[in-house]
Design goal:
heterotrimer, A alpha/beta (398), B mainly alpha (330), C mainly alpha (290), A: 398 residues, alpha/beta, Rossmann fold, nine-stranded mixed beta sheet, five-stranded parallel beta sheet, 12 helices, 23% strand, C: 290 residues, mainly alpha, 2 strands, 3% strand, globular
Chain lengths: 398, 330, 290
């Protein structure tokens, strides 16, 4: 009964094998890129992929005759078993020298032991849970952590006339991180958290939660929600309910005001204050050049997001180790090169990899949502220089 | 949905049923293929293990859906329970894998019996929605209990001892593959025995004509709950295998999406045929793997097209189509 | 106590708005599942298409909101007849699970197509000036747009009610839901009836998707993400019923809103607990026939 089916299955297996590329040339560096190309994060991942392509296009020549081979794989979402399998295949079958990408925390958490076992350095381009970096000595993060954002924002709020704050976060790991970090920074700076709510991960309408908050009349509402879809819905609820007029300021992590989607988000209230690693309208010369190149490549209305900058700097880190080793990648030498690596000319300003924690040290910017030439933009109003992730100091390794 | 094709119909129906439990040579094919894959494609064993786990998971659903006729969108509840049971045991010092499989089967089976006793009073869309409610509530419970489960970030610190104290789970996934294949073989044998037993026959009877089974005095509800619990236990074993071979568990193991995926895989292969799982899982997963490589952004368009074409031109899944072809050219 | 009344009004108002979107998007599914016994899991695709068309007509061609909505409804209704005749009709006799597989396949294809044409981000519906701003209600300000959604929902429900209860077409539908074979034998052209009903269901979904685009935002995963809620409304309301989905949507919309307002810590699970209890209490739904 199963004859034809099993035959088909054999054919399918055979075809997959036939599609495997032949052995690599001597001077080829292979990098496996694992990102969620489909699924809920597709919009942000598209930005990351565009940044990777643009970096290759603009800087590809710098590698000389070394060939950089990017092998992309779709882990489809928070799907750790799939991410681990893809990483395993990239390591054992494609023989990649480096791994990069990783949008979701559980995915990198699952891959970390593999990096240690196979000695493959991993450049984390997004996943933002502080603890992940400790899971393997072969991990480096070029994006940010939630503590790195929310803790300084809490301190900033406490020092800028906000006495009573309400916290609203999505009810899952990163949301809990953001809540803990903001509450700590805010209370240390003398503020009082008057209430908090953890909102479900699958939530279409934020009005009921925000109505409740409006009734509490705090000075400010701190928000963390994942991704632009939730951010747009939350902003809409904030506007619809007139929280701004009621004197409740909206503050949050940069996730709620993605630069590239501001134009499509609709009625976003002016004056939202967020903290972030990057704003597309920043004045830095490196950023001006980056945005100009971006627009030249992807059209005059295209705007790069912080996700794009994370991937961009990840490529810069990869280029750094490839150039320094002339295409012959040694894992431990690579880690040596990455620890303490700095780039003073990133679009986001100076960045550095902390040699101890292997996590990124960077400026964090307090940004205010304003109209620039009629278009909404996150204008940087204050710089908090070279912020380390505060989490490791508060949670020393056991 | 009677499975008597023309060739076997020539035999007396009683003989057909009486002999159907005997092993026939095509039934060795999946096992030969599993062995051949190990020998010929050693760099595909990671995907191979995941396919074998999915085969087992779909096989457990076949018992519930294909034989007992219970349409469920909540089968991942049991896969997830098994995965978290094995994961939590391993994270808290119980690193021996095989005994953890039994524990996972017991936990998932018990939950299947308890939830089945409540929801199997209903049928059709109502039952479908109740299974969905169960898996959604369980998923939220796992998310809320993040001090135990690790929540959205996943369960850390899973350590699995070498299999039988001797074989390490290696980078290439050889041990994991053989382990999955061995467990699948045992579970397949158990499920096969079950569906050819009088109990299995009565399940098919309930699926085909519940009223008549009531009329001849079969304990319909109890049979259904038993089948549901056994299916749950087998799904729990599949979940435990995944936790042990990946050495990681996160919330995606208890989700509506996984429930829907296994349903698709089983129907795609052909439900109620014992081998639908063996056909559906490899083809679907290999196709998905290849398509997502060729077209990482839009691959699910092609998966969708595949599903639509299967229903339009290969009704009853791939095995149903094979049956149809054999009926036309006996 | 002074807080109590305004809070109650808020819950009712926002709950109603949410309920009406759920109702409009799901009522067509109830009719197709009840009338044709077809498990159409791709129903959300029609709502999504209605939303995308409305937004695109307004943004690209500068059409007004209401004309754009009307065009979108007609276009989706027409497209759903084409789909029904060419594809769905071939599966009326298929098993439930084949229908599930087929319609899930359609959802996948629609999701990929929407990503291809509109990109992965949610689309914003630019409301006309008349629907922006607030209206006062019991001492509080409420968004005009949501009030409009509530009014439209009630109007549609009343229209459907009258249409199904008072017209010949409605009588034919009710007859066919009750006993398809008998309806056919008394001379009702059930094929045509199916097509018309399917178009009606598609058009209603498009109305729900378009009008509700600022409550349930339009993005490629719309059809799969909200499918569960549409199915819940159908199951709780009772398959094949017109009244059922209305009351089920009210119950779930207001209940969900109230729970998120009053007990946010269990906001995520309210709808599933409600589903569980309601269906064990009334397995055929509130207005379904056992």
């Amino acid at each position: 009964m199963a004859r034809l089916g099993t035959l088909l299955c054999a054919l399918a297996f055979g075809a997959t094998v036939a599609a495997t590329p032949p052995a690599r040339a001597a001077e080829t560096v292979k990098v496996g890129v694992i990102l969620a190309y489909s699924g809920q994060a597709a919009a942000s991942v598209k930005q990351m992929d565009e940044a990777i392509n643009l970096y290759m296009k603009l800087h590809g020549k710098e590698l000389g005759d070394t060939k950089l081979d990017l092998i992309r794989r779709d882990d489809t979402g928070p799907n750790p078993d799939m991410a681990k399998r893809l990483a395993r295949e990239l390591i054992t079958r494609d023989k990649v020298n480096l791994l990069a990408g990783f949008y979701f925390t559980p995915n990198i958490n699952a891959v970390a032991p593999l990096a240690t076992e196979a000695k493959v350095p991993v450049i984390i381009m997004n996943a933002a849970t502080s603890a992940s970096i400790r899971l393997s000595p072969y991990l480096v993060r070029v994006s940010q952590t939630l503590w790195q954002q929310s803790y300084p924002l809490g301190q900033w709020a406490g020092h800028h006339g906000i006495k009573r704050a309400y916290i609203a976060v999505t009810d899952y790991g990163p949301g809990h991180d953001a809540e803990a970090a903001f509450a700590r920074g805010f209370t240390e700076a003398g503020g009082t958290v008057v209430g908090h709510v953890e909102m479900p991960l699958k939530n279409a309408d934020y009005v009921p939660f925000l109505q409740r908050i409006k009734d509490e009349k705090p000075d400010a509402l701190f928000v963390f929600v994942p991704g632009s879809r939730d951010a747009a819905a939350l902003m809409r609820a904030y506007s619809d309910l007139g929280l701004a007029a009621a004197g409740v300021r909206l503050i949050g992590t940069g996730d709620i005001v993605p630069d590239n989607e501001l134009a499509e988000m609709g009625n976003v209230p002016d004056g939202v204050v967020t903290i972030g690693l990057y704003s597309a309208v920043a004045d830095r010369p490196a950023n001006k050049a980056f945005v100009a190149a971006w627009k030249a490549e992807y059209g005059p209305d295209a705007v790069p997001s912080p996700f794009a900058v994370g991937a961009w700097d990840g490529m810069a880190a990869i280029f750094h180790v490839v150039k320094a080793q002339h295409g012959k990648i040694d894992p431990d030498r690579t880690m040596q090169l990455l620890k303490g690596w700095r780039d003073d000319d990133s679009p986001r300003g100076p960045i550095m990899i902390d040699p101890q924690t292997r996590d990124i040290v960077q400026n964090m910017y307090i940004r205010k949502l304003e109209r620039v030439n009629g278009k909404l933009a996150n204008v940087e109003v204050e710089t908090i220089p070279m912020v380390q992730d505060p989490w490791p100091k508060l949670n020393p390794p056991k | 949905m009677t499975k008597l094709d023309r060739r076997t119909a020539a035999v007396h129906p009683v003989d057909h049923i009486a002999h159907s439990h005997r092993l026939r040579w095509p039934e060795a094919l999946p096992w030969l293929l599993i062995a051949a894959t190990y020998l010929l494609f050693p760099s595909y064993l990671a995907l191979g293990s995941q396919v074998l786990i999915m085969v087992l998971f779909a096989l457990s659903l076949d018992l519930v859906l294909g034989y007992a006729g219970i349409v469920t969108l909540g089968h991942a509840a049991f896969f997830g329970l098994g995965a978290y049971t094995a994961g939590l045991l391993a994270a808290h010092g119980w690193s021996e894998p095989i005994s953890a499989l039994f524990a996972a089967a017991v936990v998932a089976g018990a939950f299947g019996a308890a939830s089945g006793a409540i929801i199997l009073r209903t049928s059709g869309l109502t039952l479908l929605m109740l299974t969905l409610a169960v898996v959604s509530l369980l998923a939220e419970a796992a998310n809320k209990a993040d001090s135990i489960t690790g929540g959205a970030d996943g369960l850390q610190g899973i350590v699995i001892n070498p299999l039988l104290g001797r074989f390490d789970f290696d980078l290439y996934g050889r041990t994991a593959y053989l382990y999955c294949a061995a467990v699948l073989l045992v579970m397949w044998y158990v499920v096969r025995r079950l569906v050819h037993s009088p109990f299995g026959r009565s399940l098919t009877g309930i699926r085909e004509n519940r009223l008549r089974m009531h009329a001849i005095g079969a304990p319909v509800r109890r049979r259904l709950v038993t089948a549901y619990a056994i299916g749950a236990a087998v799904a729990g074993v599949a979940g435990a295998l995944q936790a042990q071979t990946t050495q990681f568990v996160a919330l995606n193991v208890i989700s509506f999406h996984l429930s829907a995926a296994v349903l698709i895989i089983l129907i795609f292969g052909g439900a109620g045929r014992l081998y639908g799982a063996f056909v559906g899982a490899p083809i679907y997963m290999v196709a998905q793997d290849m398509l997502s490589r060729l077209d990482p952004v839009y691959w699910f368009f092609w998966v969708g097209l595949l599903l639509v074409l299967v229903v339009l031109f290969a009704r009853g899944g791939i095995l149903g189509c094979v049956d149809g072809v054999r009926r036309r050219w006996p | 106590m002074s807080q109590f009344l305004p809070a109650l009004v808020s819950i009712l108002f926002h709950g109603l708005a949410y309920a009406m979107v759920l109702y409009l998007a799901a009522v067509g599914l109830s009719v197709t599942m009840g009338l044709m016994g077809f498990a159409n899991l791709a129903h959300g695709v029609f709502a999504m298409a209605g939303g995308y068309l409305t937004i695109t007509l307004m943004a690209a061609l500068g059409v007004g909101f209401l004309p754009a909505l009307a065009v979108a409804i007609l276009a989706v209704a027409a497209a759903s007849v084409v789909l029904e005749r060419t594809l769905y009709a071939r599966l009326y006799t298929a098993s439930e699970i084949d229908q599930v597989l087929f319609t899930i396949g359609l959802v996948y294809m629609a999701t990929a197509a929407a990503t291809f044409f509109w990109g992965p981000s949610p689309q914003h519906l630019a409301l006309p000036a008349a629907l922006q701003g607030d209206i006062p209600l019991v001492g509080r300000q409420f968004p005009t747009y949501r009030a409009f959604v509530i009014v439209m929902g009630f109007a549609t429900a009343l229209g459907l009610w009258a249409g199904i209860e008072r017209t010949r077409f409605g009588a034919m539908i009710r007859a066919a839901v009750d006993n398809r074979a008998m309806a056919r034998s008394v001379g009702i052209d059930t094929d045509r009836l199916f097509s018309l009903t399917f178009a009606l269901g598609g058009g209603l979904a498009a109305l729900g998707g378009g009008i509700g685009a600022e409550i349930l935002s339009i993005h490629p995963a719309y059809a799969i993400e909200h499918l569960v809620y549409f199915l819940i409304v159908v199951a709780v309301g009772g398959m094949g019923s017109i009244r059922g989905p209305f009351f089920a949507a009210l119950l779930l919309g207001i209940g969900d809103t109230a729970c998120k307002y009053l007990f946010p810590e269990i906001g995520a699970v309210f709808i599933y607990i409600a589903l569980f209890i309601l269906l064990l209490w009334r397995p055929a739904g509130l207005f379904g026939r056992a």
